[in-house]
């Protein structure tokens, strides 16, 4: 399975080496233990795994499986931005009040600032970078351009991730419904009417989102 | 943020044992409130026990009760057929709370255990009896616009913050039990005895013992499925905590009210149930005049601070409006 792994970040790699050293010392201490205990200690995807310094996780980000070593205090948002270089997901308030950090976890929209990366072990995360197919924009991205659904653009990745989920959930049948189900995404520029129009249009077209 | 040890149990027994072994540990499920509190340094556990892998997500009907696992997500509960069919008031209240994203993360157990959103509790530079027992209450002489108007009659409150949940207001109106696992096995608490009023220990929100884990709630079947309403009044149309919320449920037959439930959010340290109002409604024909009478009767025991006197009228009006909608009176 190791060839599935894409762990190119230099930080994460060096962290992994430190983890390896620690684990090696741990194993040395256990060298008198029966073989099955050693085996259990080494099972790759079997968490918990963490002392107060580093924890080992594996998760899928935009379709690529990653094995990472993280500080348990690191939020999923910080992992995406600082460790994985996926800066499309924005840090707005960092307290769950603005929705700029919205991503999909196992297909459902969630706030990446209010969850620790270590808790996402085994899950599939999709960010704004995973929404389009290469140069081909997602239908909602195209609709945002047609309807001028943004001004400064800072809230836009969160709006798009939330808007796609809103349509998938079946909560985009009227402007009122869209406003209610999009209320977790704030836009200080006030592009709300255009965002609502874009979501309603994509829903109406009935295209697969 | 203070470093913490991260543990991930697979069974309830394992989780409870871990909590007993680490006195400073906290359970984490959705994390939507706890992580917020940890970032601000209001809570700093040395160990986090991630309970997301425990088998506590199930929603089922057993005998005459809807049993909802503590890890069921708010969004899943709100749209589950068992809940929309048998407990529509609960579904309504859940959808009035938070946002689409947060409802996808927040669990039932976590909703029960969320802390107050009093701004002084969140401001670590200010005294707060709930955050730092004995330091004083900044809200009492401060901006208490969102604070409580109902208190324990026998004691001076040391904290005037309100409980933030919508779900808990509906559960207070219904007959609910909380199922709890602990080092000595399982026990059950009636919902009305789960949360505390603000007494001399405002740092404690509930009667859970240290290390105990909420595993499920059980809501009794009822005859309120036709006549119910959850009315939430807030500063903006959506995604804000309640200034006042009313859960109203009526059982009506032959033009009369046979059973009534009224619970309020945003007015006390825990969701507030109106026992006297319920008795006064029973046996009467529903009318705006009756609803106005009972609402104002109950408001006589309300006590406002400098900035929240508006809540007294607002609560009475919200009660009348919610009861009218529940009864189908326009």
From TrEMBL, chain A:
Recorded superkingdom: Bacteria
Domain 2Fe-2S ferredoxin-type: start-end pairs: 55-131
For this UniProt record, the keywords arranged alphabetically read as follows: Iron, Metal-binding, Oxidoreductase
The regions listed as transmembrane in this protein's record are none
SUPFAM superfamilies in the record, alphabetically? 2Fe-2S ferredoxin-like (SSF54292), CO dehydrogenase ISP C-domain like (SSF47741)
PANTHER family named in the record:
OXIDOREDUCTASE WITH IRON-SULFUR SUBUNIT, OXIDOREDUCTASE, IRON-SULPHUR BINDING SUBUNIT-RELATED-RELATED
Protein name as annotated: Oxidoreductase
TrEMBL record, chain B:
What InterPro entries has UniProt attached to this entry? Answer: CO_DH_flav_C (IPR005107), CO_DH_flav_C_dom_sf (IPR036683), Diverse_Substr_Oxidored (IPR051312), FAD-bd_PCMH (IPR016166), FAD-bd_PCMH-like_sf (IPR036318), FAD-bd_PCMH_sub1 (IPR016167), FAD-bd_PCMH_sub2 (IPR016169), Mopterin_DH_FAD-bd (IPR002346)
Pfam families named among the record's database cross-references = CO_deh_flav_C, FAD_binding_5
Q: Where is the FAD-binding PCMH-type domain?
A: 1-224
Q: Which UniProt keywords apply?
A: FAD, Flavoprotein
SMART domains reported in the protein's UniProt record: CO_deh_flav_C
Taxonomic superkingdom: Bacteria
**What is the name attached to this protein's record?**
Oxidoreductase
The species is Dyadobacter beijingensis
Upper classification of the organism: Bacteria, Pseudomonadati, Bacteroidota, Cytophagia, Cytophagales
């Amino acid at each position: 399975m190791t060839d599935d792994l894409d762990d190119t970040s230099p930080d994460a790699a060096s962290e992994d080496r430190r983890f390896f050293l620690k684990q090696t010392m741990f194993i040395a201490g256990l060298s008198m233990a029966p073989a099955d205990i050693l085996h259990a200690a080494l099972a790759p995807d079997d968490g918990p795994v963490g002392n107060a310094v580093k924890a080992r996780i594996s998760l899928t980000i935009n379709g690529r499986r990653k094995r990472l070593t993280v500080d348990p205090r690191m939020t999923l948002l910080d992992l995406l931005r600082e460790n994985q270089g996926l800066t499309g997901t924005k840090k707005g308030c960092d307290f769950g009040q603005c929705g700029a950090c919205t991503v999909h976890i196992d297909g459902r929209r969630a706030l990446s600032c209010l969850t620790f990366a270590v808790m996402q072990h085994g899950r599939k995360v999709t960010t704004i970078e995973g929404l389009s197919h290469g140069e081909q924009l997602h239908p909602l991205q195209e609709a945002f351009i047609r309807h001028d659904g943004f001004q400064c653009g800072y809230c836009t990745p969160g709006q798009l991730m939330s808007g796609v989920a809103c349509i998938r959930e079946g909560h985009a049948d009227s402007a009122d419904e869209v406003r209610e189900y999009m209320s977790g995404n704030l836009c200080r520029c006030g592009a709300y009417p255009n965002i609502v129009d874009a979501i309603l249009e994509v829903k109406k077209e009935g295209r697969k989102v | 943020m203070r470093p913490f040890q991260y543990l991930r149990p697979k069974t309830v027994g394992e989780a409870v044992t871990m909590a007993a072994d680490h006195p400073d540990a906290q359970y984490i499920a959705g994390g939507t409130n706890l992580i917020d509190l940890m970032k601000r340094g209001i809570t700093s556990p040395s160990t986090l026990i991630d309970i997301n892998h425990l088998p506590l997500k199930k929603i089922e009907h057993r005998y005459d009760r809807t049993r909802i696992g503590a890890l069921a997500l708010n969004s899943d509960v709100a749209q589950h057929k068992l809940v929309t069919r048998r407990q529509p008031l609960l579904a309504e209240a859940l959808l009035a709370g938070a946002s689409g994203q947060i409802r996808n993360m927040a669990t039932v157990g976590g909703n029960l255990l969320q802390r107050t959103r009093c701004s002084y509790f969140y401001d670590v530079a200010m005294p707060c009896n709930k955050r730092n027992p004995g330091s004083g209450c900044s809200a009492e002489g401060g901006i208490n616009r969102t604070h409580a108007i109902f208190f324990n009659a026998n004691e001076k409150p040391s904290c005037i913050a309100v409980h933030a949940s919508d779900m808990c207001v509906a559960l207070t109106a219904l007959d609910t039990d909380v199922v709890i696992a602990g080092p000595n096995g399982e026990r059950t608490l009636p919902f009305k005895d789960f949360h505390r009023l603000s007494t001399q220990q405002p740092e404690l929100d509930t009667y859970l013992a240290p290390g105990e884990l909420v595993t499920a709630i059980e809501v009794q079947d009822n005859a309120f499925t036709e006549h119910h309403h959850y009315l939430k009044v807030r500063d903006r149309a959506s995604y804000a905590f309640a200034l006042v919320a009313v859960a109203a449920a009526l059982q009506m037959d032959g033009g009369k009210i046979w059973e009534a439930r009224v619970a309020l959010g945003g007015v006390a340290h825990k969701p507030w149930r109106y026992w006297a109002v319920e008795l006064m409604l029973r046996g009467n024909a529903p009318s705006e005049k009756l609803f106005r009478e009972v609402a104002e009767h109950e408001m006589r025991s309300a006590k406002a601070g400098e900035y929240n006197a508006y809540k007294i009228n607002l609560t009475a009006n919200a009660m009348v409006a919610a009861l009218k909608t529940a009864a189908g009176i326009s």
